[in-house]
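Batch job 17 of 40 flagged for manual review because the log was empty.
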Amino acid sequence: MERKAVFRTEGITKVYGTGPAAVHALRGVDLALYEGEMVVMLGASGSGKSTLLNILGALDTPTDGRVFFRDRELTRLSDAALTAFRRDHVGFVFQFYNLVPSLTARENVALVTEIARNPMRPEEALERAGLPDRMDHFPAELSGGEQQRVAIARAIAKRPEVLLCDEPTGALDSKTGVKVLEALVSINDELGTATALITHNVGIRKIAHRVIVLADGQVAEVTENDARVPPADVSW
């Protein structure tokens, strides 16, 4: 059965600045992200990983080239339409959790469910993220890994078609990072949410369906894993 692309890019470039000081963050990137798959993106600092993820999620726009979400060309949309696209279709998970400290885990997730079109209950999102017993705790009462899983619950509560994760385990130790990856893999498997995950940790590539390596703003390598490895068996 033919796989359907959720995202597709055609020759996207991104240049910051002008003249001799211009920085070419992306140099003609073509790629696709498919329904239900988990992709791990690897590359050194400055390789273009975060820029690419931000363009896919409509947090940034390319200097040139085209980006499609299904059959819709994002690069032709207005700012208001891009805001609606992010709200309705994309969940974001960053290295730092960005939780509201005065709200409980449940209330942090509810911030999203109150504006989403077809949200799951905050309680369901937190259970899927592995936090059934921590819903009424404040961020200061949670470990770093637990706070990250609240951020994951917040991201998935609106039932996004795609989940974009930028170094979600970057600030965590290996044991805690495994729990965060287990939550992401579980969501990918159970909900079919297409997931792209940026990491510096080469070992994490084993949890993916496909691995995309970026170098100097270009796709240097794309490989498929014959079998995925559980997060607990990843080498850190």
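Reviewer: the log was empty due to a logging misconfiguration, but the result itself is present. Residues 48 and 217 are 5 Å apart (CA to CA). Unflagging and moving on to job 18.
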